[in-house]
């Protein structure tokens, strides 16, 4: 199996040439006009409305850049690696011989950026700049097939790989590989930009690299893609709150009035505006709900004890702080990512950081004697090395977080769920 990954707007969040022109024309009086022209040429080529050859040639002429600008660009791009790729750096390390960057961009800035992800130089296929005596970009190597229209198709035909090949990218040139019958599947990557004309032709739309790994049953940094986590925003909620949740990658639905019952069954996160009344009968229908973020004081609006018995954490803002629109969604995100229950009104307070090189299990159970012993008996029976363990209880529930080493028998999950008085079990990463 081989994995081809595009660079611009896929491996990185941005188009490198767009960023390069911003750097090279920093003090130019027509900077914004030229930037918009380059962006327009980029989009036209990526959507298949303009030949890649013409787009590239016209963009390079507008750069006015030299080698010193490329050094500045690399620093920018290293900070702009797509979050889901950065999060899954271990996958790149373990599968470096199977991963290839195939791009219409340029090796001069691609190679130093992807080097941190253990992708060897020989696995990078891209264009190269030509420079004049003063180090200014004077053009590019036009003998490279990647400088031409359909260049990725031409390159792959030359390589003549016999393996199954999956391609991940955001542009029309990536789809062309599938159209030509050279790759097994094309995944339209939409974490940074979604091009409708490209996405509609894909075998699968993948809003993150996590999604790609998940559907192909490959090792991933988190247990479940964030784009698959359904988040219901209910009532009058500030746009700032919704933007924070969207930026985290959740699938958002905002309802100010009645919510369809079919959506309640899939909802994992609920963020509610102050004054919203959430009845037990309504919450009972939310079978996958893990956390409620309440923008205001939830007392009298949500039954704290009932939610605790169902393993649902409530995070609220009793004082209606003016920063609640930021504070509550960030606490919700922290709970989803690490299991931290700081500022919860119905759960024991545990505040944690992610532990590198580990898997994190969360076990919520009724506060009964002997549960902790049963949990550790399961780990011992499966020969699992515990790296760290945290337990807190209140009158109703026990909340256990266990970090284990990366190697474990998958049947341990079922055994933990079967422990008597278990309320909920989660594997975070």
From TrEMBL:
Pathway: Amino-acid biosynthesis; L-serine biosynthesis; L-serine from 3-phospho-D-glycerate: step 3/3. Pfam families: 2-Hacid_dh, ACT_AHAS_ss, HAD. CDD domains: ACT_3PGDH. GO terms for molecular function: L-phosphoserine phosphatase activity; magnesium ion binding; NAD binding; oxidoreductase activity, acting on the CH-OH group of donors, NAD or NADP as acceptor. GO terms for cellular component: cytoplasm. SUPFAM superfamilies: ACT-like, Formate/glycerate dehydrogenase catalytic domain-like, HAD-like. Its cofactor is Mg(2+). Keywords: Amino-acid biosynthesis, Hydrolase, Magnesium, Metal-binding, Serine biosynthesis. It catalyses: O-phospho-L-serine + H2O = L-serine + phosphate; O-phospho-D-serine + H2O = D-serine + phosphate; (R)-2-hydroxyglutarate + NAD(+) = 2-oxoglutarate + NADH + H(+). Its EC number is 1.1.1.399, 3.1.3.3. Transmembrane segments: none annotated. Residues 360-429 form the ACT domain. The keyword Magnesium applies. GO terms for biological process: L-serine biosynthetic process. InterPro entries: ACT-like_dom_sf, ACT_dom, AHAS_small-like_ACT, D-isomer_2_OHA_DH_cat_dom, HAD-like_SerB, HAD-like_sf, HAD_sf. Catalyzes the reversible oxidation of 3-phospho-D-glycerate to 3-phosphonooxypyruvate, the first step of the phosphorylated L-serine biosynthesis pathway. Also catalyzes the reversible oxidation of 2-hydroxyglutarate to 2-oxoglutarate. This is D-3-phosphoglycerate dehydrogenase. It comes from Anseongella ginsenosidimutans.
């Amino acid at each position: 199996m081989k994995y081809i990954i595009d660079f611009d707007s896929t491996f990185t969040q941005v188009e490198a040439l767009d960023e390069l022109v911003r750097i090279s024309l920093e003090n130019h009086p027509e900077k914004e006009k030229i930037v918009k022209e380059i962006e327009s040429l980029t989009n036209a080529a990526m959507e298949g409305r303009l030949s890649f050859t013409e787009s590239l040639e016209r963009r390079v002429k507008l750069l006015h850049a030299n080698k010193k600008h490329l050094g500045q660009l690399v620093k920018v791009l290293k900070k702009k690696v797509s979050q889901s790729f950065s999060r899954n750096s271990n996958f790149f390390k373990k599968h470096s011989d199977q991963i290839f960057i195939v791009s219409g961009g340029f090796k001069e800035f691609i190679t130093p950026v992807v080097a941190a992800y253990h992708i060897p130089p020989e696995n990078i296929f891209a264009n190269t700049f030509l420079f004049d005596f003063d180090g200014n970009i004077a053009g590019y190597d036009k003998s490279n097939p990647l400088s031409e229209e359909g260049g990725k198709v031409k390159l792959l035909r030359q390589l003549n790989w016999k393996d199954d090949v999956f391609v991940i990218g955001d542009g029309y040139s990536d789809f062309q590989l599938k159209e030509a019958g050279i790759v097994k599947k094309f995944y339209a990557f939409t974490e940074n930009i979604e091009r409708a004309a490209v996405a509609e032709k894909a075998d699968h739309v993948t809003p993150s690299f996590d999604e790609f790994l998940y559907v192909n049953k490959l090792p991933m940094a988190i247990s479940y893609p964030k784009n698959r986590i359904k988040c219901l925003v209910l009532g009058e909620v500030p746009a700032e709150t919704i933007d924070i949740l969207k930026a985290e990658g959740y699938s958002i639905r905002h309802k100010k009035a009645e919510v369809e019952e079919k959506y309640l069954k899939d909802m994992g996160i609920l963020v509610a505006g102050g004054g919203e009344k959430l009845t037990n009968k309504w919450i009972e229908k939310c079978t996958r709900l893990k956390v409620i973020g309440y923008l205001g004081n939830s007392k009298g609006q949500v039954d704290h004890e009932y939610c605790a018995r169902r393993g649902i954490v409530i995070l609220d803002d009793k004082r209606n702080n003016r920063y609640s629109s930021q504070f509550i969604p960030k606490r919700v995100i922290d709970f989803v990512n690490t299991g931290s229950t700081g500022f919860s009104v119905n759960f024991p307070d545990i505040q944690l950081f992610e532990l590198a090189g580990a898997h994190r299990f969360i076990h919520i159970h009724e506060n009964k004697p002997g549960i902790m012993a049963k949990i550790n008996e399961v780990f011992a029976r499966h020969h699992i090395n515990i790296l760290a363990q945290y337990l807190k209880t209140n009158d109703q529930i026990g909340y256990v977080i266990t970090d284990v080493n990366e190697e474990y028998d998958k049947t341990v999950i079922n055994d933990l769920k079967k422990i008597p008085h278990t309320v909920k079990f989660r594997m975070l990463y």
